[in-house]
């Protein structure tokens, strides 16, 4: 049964270059975080040149287990779909964080281990940093590879160094379902300030147009912790879970969403080089029940009708509604669980 206390989702993240991290949400089955594989490439900044030459794209896309498909022009129906994805993800920072350029970090924040968090309550700060967990630690295999262009890392690092406040941007690339390779080819910085909602909307629209013109998909986002470690906060974890659900959509296809954090001025970094960390989130242990019954012959088929006008999933949602804590982060967790139930049956 579901626990009433609001357990936070677990975050996993970063490793050195050419590392594998836990990743998930394949067909609605969250597994954990994702890897970032760095690949040498000529330097270029977003917005200053046209699409990368094919040979450079191939360098960026080269992973241990596959390559990205050749560049192809997007068809109009796909463009509309991609634009909806972009807008749904782009609207979130403007609504929750405010437009990019978040508050400066003046006080040092000490990260905590996931196992020490206990339950979520109003007394715990959403800015609490959480240590990430590797896939190896939870005995999971990474279901796909990630290749990131050095251009992306260069621009992200440069953007993060410019201000004492947090910055935000989006990641464009391609997802190859055949090779299970996510290729991140471009970074799109959000050039707007906190509180400037009108400007933020215009910048997000411009980024969406840039993605379509280059035939790229929205594959993730990045932000900075200027003077802190490159670890996600509880707020970041909640936002990432929401983004994963938005990019996955309502279909049966799996669309990864990668999050990157940069800590440019953190004195705990081993040298002058900024720490850039990818991470992925998975829901708390409540969903282990779904995994336990997945594939069982007596598993309730939640997409079938329970009554004339309600599916079994609708019935479950209605029953849990009165018992659900009035906390937005817990709503994200329930939506993740409902998505798992829908696909597992």
UniProtKB/TrEMBL annotation:
Acidic residues bias spans: 46-60
Listed Basic and acidic residues bias regions: 61-82
GO biological process, one term: proteolysis
Domain MPN: 146-281
Keyword presence, Chloroplast: no
Protein origin, superkingdom: Eukaryota
Entries under InterPro entries matching the protein: JAMM/MPN+_dom (IPR000555), JAMM_MPN+_peptidase_M67A (IPR050242), MPN (IPR037518)
Entry keywords, A to Z: Hydrolase, Metal-binding, Metalloprotease, Protease, Zinc
GO molecular function terms listed in the Swiss-Prot or TrEMBL record: metal ion binding; metallopeptidase activity
Family as reported in the entry's similarity comment: Belongs to the peptidase M67 family.
Protein name, per record: MPN domain-containing protein
The organism's taxonomic lineage, starting at the top: Eukaryota, Metazoa, Chordata, Craniata, Vertebrata
């Amino acid at each position: 049964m579901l626990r009433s206390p609001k357990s936070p989702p677990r975050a996993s993240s970063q490793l050195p270059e050419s590392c594998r991290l836990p990743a998930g949400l394949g067909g609605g089955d969250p597994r954990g975080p994702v890897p970032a594989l760095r690949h040498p490439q000529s330097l270029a900044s977003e917005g200053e040149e046209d699409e990368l030459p094919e040979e450079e794209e191939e360098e960026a896309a080269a992973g241990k287990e596959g390559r990205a498909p050749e560049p192809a022009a997007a068809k109009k129906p796909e463009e509309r779909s991609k634009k909806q994805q972009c807008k749904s993800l782009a609207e979130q920072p403007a609504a929750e964080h405010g437009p990019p350029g978040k508050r400066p970090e003046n006080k040092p924040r000490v990260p905590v281990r996931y196992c020490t968090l206990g339950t979520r309550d109003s007394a715990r700060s959403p800015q609490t940093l959480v240590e990430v967990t590797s896939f190896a630690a939870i005995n999971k295999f990474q279901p796909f590879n990630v290749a990131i262009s050095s251009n992306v890392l260069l621009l992200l690092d440069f953007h993060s160094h410019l201000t004492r406040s947090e910055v935000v941007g989006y990641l464009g690339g391609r997802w190859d379902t055949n090779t299970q390779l996510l290729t991140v080819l471009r970074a799109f910085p959000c050039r707007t300030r906190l509180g400037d909602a009108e400007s933020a909307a215009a910048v997000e629209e411009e980024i969406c147009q840039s993605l379509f013109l280059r035939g790229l998909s929205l594959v993730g986002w990045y932000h900075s912790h200027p003077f802190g470690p490159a670890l996600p906060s509880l707020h970041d974890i909640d936002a990432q879970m929401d983004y994963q659900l938005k990019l996955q959509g309502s279909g049966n296809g799996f669309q990864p969403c990668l999050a990157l954090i940069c800590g440019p001025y953190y004195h705990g970094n081993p040298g002058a080089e900024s720490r850039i960390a990818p991470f992925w989130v998975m829901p708390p242990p409540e969903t282990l029940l779904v995994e336990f019954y997945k594939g069982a012959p007596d598993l309730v088929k939640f997409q079938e009708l329970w009554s004339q006008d309600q599916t079994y999933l609708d019935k479950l949602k209605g029953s849990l509604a009165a018992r659900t804590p009035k906390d937005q982060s817990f709503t994200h967790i329930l939506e993740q669980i409902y998505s798992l139930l829908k696909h597992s049956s």
